[in-house]
Every structure is written in structure tokens, then in C-alpha cells.
Amino acid sequence: MLADENICRFIEFRCEEFKRVNGKMNHTGHYFGKGLQIKEKCYLEDGKYKFVKSSGFRIAKIIEGVPNWANEYLVNLYKSKKPKQDDAE
């Protein structure tokens, strides 16, 4: 069993930003975002996802429970994937 197999939590993250200039990838900065981490993926509010284990992805903050900014898509995904508390005992 992998360590991140049962992870289901809301997070704030930081990602590196790159732009292509003259055929080369240049680091232009970073941006912050919010999402729902399930296993190795972080689902965003618009339905897209990012891989947590990618080199430019860093978790900035772990949020307990369901935050106010979470939309209906993320809340439904959280409720369907969250491990039940009875299984842990």
C-alpha cells in the first residue's frame, strides 16, 4: 500500500510558470491556486487536474474540512472519494 493511497484533502498550492521564448522554455515566475488532492492528483475548480508529484508543484497549505471557496464539483468529488471514518478503526 502506498503512503498517498488514501489521501483526500483540500490544499493550496504553488506552481512554477514557464513560457516559450525563441524556442526555449523560460521560467517566468510562479502562481498560487487551490484544489482538492485525491491520491497523486490535485483537482481544480474548473474540472482540470495537476499532478502533485511534478517537479514544479508545491503544497503551500493543507486545509481541514470543506473550505468556503470549494464549488459543488469539488465538494461532490470530496464526499465520494473521502475514506469513511469507520474503516480506519
Strand-helix topology:
Layout: E1 8-21, E2 24-38, E3 41-43, E4 49-51, E5 57-63, H1 72-81, H2 85-88
Antiparallel strand pairs: 1-2, 1-5, 2-3, 3-4
Task: Please give a structural write-up.
The chain has 89 residues and is of the alpha+beta class. Helices cover 16% and strands 47% of the residues. It has helices at 72-81, 85-88, and strands at 8-21, 24-38, 41-43, 49-51, 57-63. It has a 5-stranded antiparallel sheet.
Search tags:
89 residues, alpha+beta, elongated
Give a short summary of the structure.
This protein has two helices and five strands; from the N terminus they run βββββαα.
The DSSP helix count reads 2
Average pLDDT taken over every residue: 87
Helix content: 10-25%
Shape: elongated
Largest sheet: 5 strands, antiparallel
SSE topology string: EEEEEHH
